[in-house]
């Protein structure tokens, strides 16, 4: 349907002429949650449970760690990875280990596995943070905040742009400035002092301060087709992955050239190599992926 306009949300279809793709700068909302957790913690130690040790999850982890560091009160962050999106048992075990190590708040960025984090929080009677939707409602006595992807705004604005003939195809990155991500404490029974909420909101530009964290830089990377398919196949149907692969230019040795956004955190000026150093080193070793240039 070449004459039909499409929106693809939470993924990137590349340069297809009639598809507008939207990805989320999740590190920005995670920054606010890390700042909030650091201001709320009584032990000075907080944790995060990720689904997998991959770049798309390390965006959350890096933002959370940076927000905690920016709070400036010495709060430390411990991270663990489940290795799956639907393993609540392991998610609970990892969260229990974090709580036992002294963390009094654990952020879940693990999809369905994150429900195990909430079970651990209830068992220990400690606090947890949810992801992407308002998960405070799952356990209002222990989940005191949640990151939000405001899909309603993105889809609404996309539809209105499509009707007006102004929806631009290509890749779009949305964060705090575009109302694409935020956080909420709504629905939780855990009382968060208003001065803490005000301080968090001021960090994210939500109250008009204009300070939006989660700096990005466009870059060109080269990946093996196997690696590219393994990454994008986690969220997309095979025919979509086939289309994405076909749209990429190739090097002489068969690597796919891909334009990406590299993530960092102001004011620390962490670049991609700092935030994801472990991932990049691992991928260099197996020949899967490397960043060629920032432009």
Explain how this protein is built.
This protein has ten helices and 13 strands. Helices cover 38% and strands 24% of the residues. The longest helix has 17 residues, at 55-71. Helix 1 packs parallel to helix 2. The radius of gyration is 19 Å and the shape is globular. The strands form three sheets. Strands 4-3-5-6-7-9 form a six-stranded mixed sheet, sandwiched between helices. A four-stranded antiparallel sheet has the order 11-12-10-13. Strands 1-2-8 form a three-stranded parallel sheet, covered by helices on one side. By secondary structure, the chain is α/β, with parallel strands linked by helices.
Could you give a short description of this structure?
The chain is of the alpha/beta class. Helices cover about 40% and strands about 25% of the residues.
Which helices and strands, and how do they pair?
Elements lengths: L5 E4 L9 E6 L1 H15 L4 E6 L4 H17 L4 E6 L6 H13 L4 E5 L5 H10 L2 E4 L12 E7 L1 H14 L5 E5 L6 E4 L9 H11 L11 E8 L1 H8 L5 H10 L1 E2 L5 E8 L8 H4 L1 H10 L2 E6 L1
Parallel strand pairs: 1-2, 2-8, 3-4, 3-5, 5-6, 6-7
Antiparallel strand pairs: 7-9, 10-12, 10-13, 11-12
Helix pairs in contact: 1-2, 1-6, 3-4
Low-pLDDT sequence parts: 206-218, 261-295
- Please give the largest β-sheet: 6 strands, mixed
The helix/strand order is EEHEHEHEHEEHEEHEHHEEHHE
> What number is the mean pLDDT?
80
The helix tally amounts to 10
Please identify the structural class as seen in this structure.
Answer: alpha/beta
Strand order of the largest sheet: 4-3-5-6-7-9
Binned strand content: 15-25%
Distance between the termini: 33 Å
Q: Whole-number radius of gyration? A: 19 Å
Shape: globular
């Amino acid at each position: 349907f070449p004459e039909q306009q499409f929106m693809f949300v939470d993924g990137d279809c590349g340069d297809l002429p009639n598809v507008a793709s939207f990805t989320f700068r999740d590190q920005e909302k995670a920054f606010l949650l890390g700042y909030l957790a650091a201001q709320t913690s009584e032990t000075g130690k907080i944790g995060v449970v990720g689904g997998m040790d991959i770049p798309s999850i390390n965006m959350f982890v890096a933002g959370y760690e940076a927000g905690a560091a920016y709070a400036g009160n010495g709060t430390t962050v411990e991270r663990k990875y489940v290795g799956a999106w639907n393993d609540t048992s392991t998610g609970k075990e990892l969260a229990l280990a974090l709580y036992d190590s002294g963390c009094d708040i654990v952020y879940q960025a693990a999809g369905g596995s994150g429900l195990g984090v909430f079970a651990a929080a209830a068992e220990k009677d400690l606090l947890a943070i949810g992801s992407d939707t308002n998960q405070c409602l799952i356990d209002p006595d222990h989940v005191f905040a949640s990151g939000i992807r405001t899909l309603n705004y993105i889809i609404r604005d996309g539809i209105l742009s499509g009707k007006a003939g102004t929806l631009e195809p290509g890749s779009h990155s949305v964060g705090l400035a575009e109302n694409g991500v935020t956080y909420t404490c709504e629905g939780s029974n855990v009382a968060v002092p208003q001065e803490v909420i005000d301080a968090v909101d001021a960090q994210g530009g939500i109250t008009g301060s204009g300070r939006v964290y989660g700096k990005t830089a466009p870059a060109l990377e080269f990946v093996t087709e196997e690696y590219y398919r393994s990454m994008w196949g986690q969220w997309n149907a095979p025919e979509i992955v086939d289309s994405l692969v076909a749209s990429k230019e190739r090097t002489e040795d068969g690597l796919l050239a891909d334009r990406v956004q590299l993530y960092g955190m102001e004011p620390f000026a962490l670049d991609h190599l700092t935030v994801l150093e472990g991932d990049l080193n691992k991928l260099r070793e197996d020949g899967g992926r490397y960043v060629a240039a920032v432009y």
